[in-house]
Specification:
four-stranded antiparallel β-sheet, 7 helices, seven-stranded mixed β-sheet, 13 strands, Rossmann fold, 26% strand, alpha/beta, 280 residues
């Protein structure tokens, strides 16, 4: 299984990274152009923060659909610098064992939905690789994408192929039986485009798995009340979803949510599985 990327005819930029954020002119979910500032945050405590980024930014609320998103996103050239401070390496020992157990629950859940434990699993933002290693242990062929070069460099040591690329860059000549996006959709500039790519690349009968914070959860509201909600101030985050908005976005592109549970690895997280609406 090879990862085939769409060829980008645009030559690489030689300009210096620009620290300013690119402002959204419209809501990334509904394209509404009326939104208000909801919250201003200080992200200076994020370990990925560096001198090339303003540590303060704001969150907007769309007055048309209610979606919440940052006032502006960082250019990829700046994010490349940010990610160098978050180099990822495979875990080992007790840490790997714990992550393997969490990953096994996800693989078992998705395999039960599909009724089989084979096919090709693509993990977007695979990080230190425990989910793909565990999926391979179950019997899947596995491949990964990650925007951190440090993660991709370790992929061959873990036994799978990987590329530094977003999901939207895949050509679509290869289709996947499972596409997982853990803490990815909330970091995209255009979540609808990411979901469209997942829909385009998913084989009939396949499953898309998404993990992201749920700002409508009781746990989220408790963190807000206590003033200890750090989810707002993660430097790479661009979107915040409620379950309702995530489902709406999925359905807009042809995915149908079919399973929901709270995340065992995040106190405010949700995990949602979806299939192609055409499969129903």
């Amino acid at each position: 299984m090879k990862i085939q990327l769409v060829q980008d005819p645009t030559p690489a930029s030689t300009s210096h990274p620009v620290a300013e954020r690119t402002r959204y002119s419209a809501c990334p979910l509904c394209e509404g152009q009326s939104f208000a500032t909801l919250k201003e945050v200080d992200g200076s405590q994020d370990p990925l923060m560096g001198p090339e980024v303003d540590p303060s930014w704001s969150w907007n609320g769309c007055e048309t659909c209610g979606h919440i998103f940052v006032d502006g996103y960082l250019q990829e050239s700046v994010l490349e610098q940010v990610r160098t401070r978050g180099a990822l390496v495979p875990s080992s020992g007790a840490e790997f064992a714990a992550k393997r157990q969490a990953a096994a629950a996800v693989v078992h859940r998705i395999s039960s939905m599909r009724g089989c434990i084979d096919g090709v699993w693509l993990d977007v933002g695979f990080g230190s690789g425990e989910l793909l290693c565990t999926a391979n242990e179950f019997g899947y062929d596995v491949v990964g994408l990650d925007m951190r070069e440090s993660a991709v460099l370790h992929a061959p040591d873990l036994g799978f192929e990987a590329a530094v690329a977003p999901l939207e860059a895949l050509e679509g000549k290869e289709l996947y039986d499972v596409i997982s996006l853990s803490n990815v959709l909330d970091q995209t500039v255009s979540p609808l485009e990411t979901l469209k790519a997942a829909c385009r690349l998913l084989r009939s009968g396949g499953v898309v798995f998404i993990a992201t914070p749920n700002l409508d959860s009781r746990a989220w509201h408790q963190q807000e009340t206590s003033g200890q909600n750090s989810e707002w101030s993660e430097i790479e985050r661009t979107q915040l979803f409620s379950r309702e908005h995530l489902y709406w976005a999925m359905r807009r592109v042809g995915l149908e949510p079919c399973d929901y549970m709270s995340s065992p690895s995040s106190p405010v997280g949700m995990e949602v599985c979806a299939t192609l609406a055409s499969d129903g």
